[in-house]
Amino acid sequence: MDVLTVKNLSVSFFRTEGEIEALKNVSFTLREGEILAVMGKTGCGKSVLCKSILKLLPDIAKIKTGHIYIRGEEITGYSEKQMQGLRGRFFSMVFQNPMTALNPCMSVGEQIGEMVRLRRPEFSGRERKKRVAELMELVGLDHAGERARQYPFQLSGGMAQRCVIAIALAAEPAVLFADEATTALDATVQAQILELLLKLRERTGMSIVLVTHNPGVAARTADRVALMRDGELYRIGDVEEIFDESTPN
After folding, report:
1. N or C: fewer beta carbons within 10 Å in the chain?
2. Quick check: is 211 in a domain?
3. Are 172 and 90 in contact (CB under 8 A)?
């Protein structure tokens, strides 16, 4: 079953100097439990695509045409209040730089716990604390009790990104958007985070949209690859097909 369907999506930014077309008739589907890598150079529209689906675009941007469906239900015309009900509960997003995604004034345990509280308001304080520890262990953070009391500046880049992923998972999403989630990390930590995403997909069954400009990341992690250029999705296929040297461009 398709968990997400995008049909002929076009998005423009309206600036004083005129209209800038950011997305042009983009169409794709995301299957249950699938990892779809969205690849392309910087500025090709990868992040705009994710933010359009989540309706996190700036005021100067507008969806001109197209349709967005989740499990067959169209959400293109959803209000901000309706989207707030989907963000976190159905969609979650992991951004490129964990240090800008985390609040420097709150411990990481508090930040994960805040999402748990929003997702599971019926939990007692003890249950919430237990869930935070479970999530931290799920993303590979050992000594969860100690880590939960730390602040972002006390963590390495890899540990901070694991905390961001834990916050995203606290919402128990059906679809996780990972927007260049490993770009700011060194090669070793990058490999660990990609392996973590694969394990999380296996354990939770969630679908993942992995935004990257790195062919190696896509080839190692994805089931299918969507290639973008100048706001257009010009090719999509299984990872073996896309990276087969004998396949014509």
Report:
1. C
2. yes
3. no
Residue 208: the pLDDT is 95
Domain extent at residue 140: 34-58+80-243
Query: Other C-beta atoms within 10 Å of 20: how many?
Result: 13
Report pLDDT for 188: 83
Tell me, yes or no, whether 229 lies in a domain: yes
Confidence (pLDDT) at 221: 92
Q: Does a structural domain hold residue 20?
A: no
Domains of the chain: total: 1
Query: b vs e for 229-248, b when ≥16 Cβ sit within 10 Å of the residue's Cβ?
Result: eebbbeebeebeebeeeeee
Those residues whose C-beta lies under 8 Å from the C-beta of residue 65, and which sit 6 or more positions away, are 8, 9, 10, 25
Q: What are phi and psi of 59, to 5 degrees?
A: -60, -25
Q: How far apart are CA 29 and CA 8, in angstroms?
A: 12
CA distances from 35 to 32, 41, 131, 174, 243 (A): 9, 19, 26, 12, 16
Token digits of residue 116: 């748990």
Helix (H) or strand (E) holding 84, with range, is: helix 80-86
CB atoms closer than 10 angstroms to residue 115: 21
Q: Is residue 21 part of a domain?
A: no
Residues of the chain with pLDDT under 70: 184, 245-249
pTM (two decimals):
0.87
